[in-house]
Amino acid sequence: HPCPMVVIIGGGIAGAAAAYYLSKEAAAAPHNREIAITVVEAVGPASGSSGKAGAFLAESWGDGTATESLHRHSFGLHAALADELGLESYRAVRAFEVRRRSGEGESGEGESGEGVGAGDNDDDDTDDDCVDRVPWLAPGWTSSPLPGGAAQVDPAE
Fold it and tell me: Which of left, alpha, beta for 110 (phi over 0: left; psi -120 to 50: alpha)?
């Protein structure tokens, strides 16, 4: 049998993970089946969105979407993979979402405000779950802990 060839487009977290898990599966297959894996990246590893977000991960980003379970599973895999590979830069972090207080516009008065932070899943317009924990926020804005976990890892590692 000729060796299967796989080309992965993109050297960010998704491309790197695909290459890693394909190589693991091949090594675990009967008779150590070889797979030729090529990762094609236009600029460099994690040069796109994987690197631009500072490799910030939030468990709740996909909440309320069709891919919610995939997002939450992926978040858990990041921690497991960091442990398996001994990544020194992986760390759990506390993160907050920031949103305009209900019924207040940019000036702090008037219009109803929309959430502007990662994980803003609050369907009602109450501030009951918000706690002002970020002291430098402008008047009319509030913050609350980001639901679920958050983590960060150096994309170059």
Answer: left
- Do the beta carbons of residue 52 and residue 44 sit within 8 Å? no
Query: 39 has which bridge partners?
Result: 8
CA dist 22 and 117 (Å) reads 35
- Overall pTM > 0.85: no
Task: Output the CA angle 52-61-153, nearest 5 degrees.
Answer: 45
Residue 145 belongs to what H/E stretch? strand 141-145
Q: Which two tokens stand for residue 9?
A: 């487009």
**Residue matched to tokens 């109450």:** 126
Cβ of 134: how many Cβ atoms within 10 Å?
12
Cβ proximity of 120 and 62 under 8 Å: no
pLDDT 10s digits, 32-69 = 678 899 999 998 887 877 777 666 788 888 889 999 99
